[in-house]
Amino acid sequence: MKAITANRLRDGVVVFLGADAAWVEAFADAALFAAADADAALAAAKAQAEGEQFGVDVYAFDVETENGVPVPVKMRERIRALGPSVRLDLGKQAAA
């Protein structure tokens, strides 16, 4: 599976493409795509983000399931999904 991410242009916040093609801040709300469908979804997301001047650095990344929960495969995307790794009282992990 794959998910699509970007940085919101107005404030730099990490966002993920949601199921209804809207950008969401929580990885839990991100749409997941089969590898075969990810390229088309990524192309559409890039066009949308550029056309709306909404986001930059739009790319797809691998997702796996751990204990029934989707999680990013690589550490970079795990950090982007949770927030800063130096303090657990900051970022998205502080709200959990």
Number of strands: 5
Strand content is 25-35%
Stretches where pLDDT falls below 50 for ≥5 residues? none
* Cα radius of gyration in angstroms: 13 Å
How would you sum up the global shape? globular
Distance between the termini: 24 Å
Mind explaining what this structure looks like?
The protein has one domain (2-71). With 96 residues, it is an alpha+beta fold. The mean pLDDT is 90. 30% of the residues lie in helices and 30% in strands. It has a 5-stranded antiparallel β-sheet with strand order 3-2-1-4-5, sandwiched between helices. The chain is built from 3 helices and 5 strands; from the N terminus they run βββαββαα. The two termini are 24 Å apart.
Key features?
5 strands, 5-stranded antiparallel beta sheet, 96 residues, alpha+beta, globular
Topology (SSEs and partners):
Layout: E1 2-8, E2 14-17, E3 23-24, H1 35-51, E4 55-66, E5 69-72, H2 75-82, H3 92-95
Antiparallel strand pairs: 1-2, 1-4, 2-3, 4-5
Structure summarized in a few sentences:
Pfam families: DUF2849 (PF11011). The chain has 96 residues and is of the alpha+beta class. Helices cover 30% and strands 30% of the residues.
